[in-house]
Amino acid sequence: MTMSFNHTSVLLQESIDSLHIQPGGVYMDGTAGGGGHCAAILEHLGSAGKLICVDQDPAALEVLAQRFVGVPNIKIIHNNFSNIKTIISGLSEWGVTRLDGLLLDIGVSSYQLDTAQRGFSYHADAPLDMRMSGEGMSARDVVNTYSEQELSAVIFRYGEEKFARSIAAGIVRARQSAPIETTGELVEIIKASMPAAAKRGAHPARRTFQAIRIEVNRELEVLEKALDDALPCMNEGGVISVITFHSLEDRLVKNKFREWAQGCTCPKDFPVCVCGKKPRVKVCKVLSPSPAEIENNNRSRSARLRSAIKCAE
Ligand SMILES: C[S@@+](CC[C@H](N)C(=O)[O-])C[C@H]1O[C@@H](n2cnc3c(N)ncnc32)[C@H](O)[C@@H]1O
Q1: Is the CB of 210 under 6 A from ligand 1?
Q2: Mean pLDDT score of the chain
Q3: Residues with Cβ within 8 Å of residue 214, at least 6 apart in sequence
Q4: Ligand 1 centroid from CA 254, angstroms
Q5: Contact by Cβ (8 Å): 124, 116
Q6: Among 31, 43, 131, 299, which is best to mutate for testing ligand 1, by the most ligand atoms less than 8 A from CB?
Q7: Share of the chain above pLDDT 70, in %
Q8: What are the chain's domains?
Q9: What would the mean pLDDT of 50-65 be, rounded to a whole number?
Q10: What pTM was estimated for this model as a whole?
Q11: Residue 7 pLDDT grade (very low, low, confident, very high; cuts 50, 70, 90)
Q12: How far is the CA of 110 from the centre of ligand 1 (A)?
């Protein structure tokens, strides 16, 4: 039986166009999820082209294995995309040493968000988990073991939440009587820690849940490592395309691409370059979903697509 994996791929056409797929090229989808982007990449690949699908969630792996059963030019790999170097070095027997394109569609899938027992959603009451990989530290561990200062820093930094201090204090107070076990309990603590006016508009737990999820999955750390390790793995002309869903990730990608694109840094009055710095990439225009896409899929509204094309080394 095919497992149902509800996820509408975001910026699908734009991201496929950004990769400039060559029929015989080697591509990696580092966040394969339900395989929506993978299927679109495959449509452009000829029989000599290769696609590597990576995901850290065992549930996604199961779906991918079913969806692409019998497809010869695909490898499905259970790993964190931050291990890109190791993943590629394990593929030399398959003839892969470098990539022509890498796609990262960061964050959680709708399938993960909508599966209540994964504990990502503030709309359902479920055990506090939020681990995409199902391994390691969970949201329950963060909420029950971090100090008040650590919680406040996480909620402020990754959630950009104005009421981080008071929410952290509320969490510490609540857990003194018993550990906080569920998303529902956490939502109630967050609501009780915020002034009434701040609870109008977007869901009051949105920012705190985002922050804890980022902390649990080390999302910014793994993204930065993946980008740093990916660039040397790309062929000349290879494209790195990243779809992000919030400003912290988008800023990280923007700054990284900007740093890579920087050429000579010698003072303007130097007659010749002494720094020897050359741009490592050419940065493409940032893209956002069209109004039609946002209307069809509200979750796409905050998405941004950034791409960089590797220059000659
Ligand atoms: C937004 S979904 C991708 C959806 C996919 N592009 C599609 O069209 O179906 C993100 C997926 O990336 C995975 N993921 C997120 N961070 C990851 C990481 N660091 N390493 C590997 N997989 C990751 C998640 O488990 C999730 O399945």
Answers
A1: no
A2: 95
A3: 154, 158, 220, 248
A4: 20
A5: yes
A6: 31
A7: 98
A8: 12-110+219-310 (3.40.50.150), 120-217 (1.10.150.170)
A9: 96
A10: 0.94
A11: confident
A12: 10
